[in-house]
Amino acid sequence: MIVNPCMRFVVLGLAMSIASLAYAGDVFNALVFNPFNKPEVLATPPKVERKKELLAAEPEVMPKLRATLMSNAAPMVIVDEEMLGVGGDINGYRLLSVEEGQAVFEKLGKRYTLKLEGSGLEIE
Q: Whose CA is closest to 115, among 73, 71, 62, 57?
């Protein structure tokens, strides 16, 4: 039987391909991690407890007094970009009284006097 030399290479290549597929199957079974599988999802995420001190540590921004408007009927102030009358509220600060160039606010039992000149702060 006469065999073409090119046919030998084809048969040899085919045999090597089959052998490599068998080897790939062994490697696939040995893999610990399959990148094509979906990851497992936990039923509920773990709770992260934060200390109350860390939550309360946010710096508080004081309102800035921009103007006082004096009138016999109802004195008013402009704080930040809002106009307030006595009893009005901004960011939890309640306006108690208005005098020429200053206003007295109250928050959580503390009184704060805001002044027009640089909006200085006095705590009573």
A: 62
Task: Please tell me whether the overall predicted TM-score, pTM, comes out greater than 0.70 for this model.
Answer: no
- CA-CA-CA-CA torsion for 13, 16, 21, 25, nearest 10 degrees? -170
Q: Which conformational region is residue 87 in: left (phi greater than 0), alpha (psi within -120 to 50 degrees), or beta?
A: left
Tokens describing residue 63: 């309102």
Of the candidates 62, 59, 76, which has an alpha carbon nearest to the alpha carbon of residue 119? 62
Query: What is the rounded CA–CA span in Å between residue 99 and residue 61?
Result: 23
- 85: β partners: 76
pLDDT > 70: percent of the chain: 65
Residue 64 CB burial class (10 angstroms; 0-12, 13-18, ≥19)? middle
Q: Please state, in angstroms and rounded to a whole number, the distance separating the CA atoms of residues 62 and 52.
A: 22
Mind listing the pLDDT tens digit for each residue in 32-57?
667 777 777 766 766 777 666 555 55
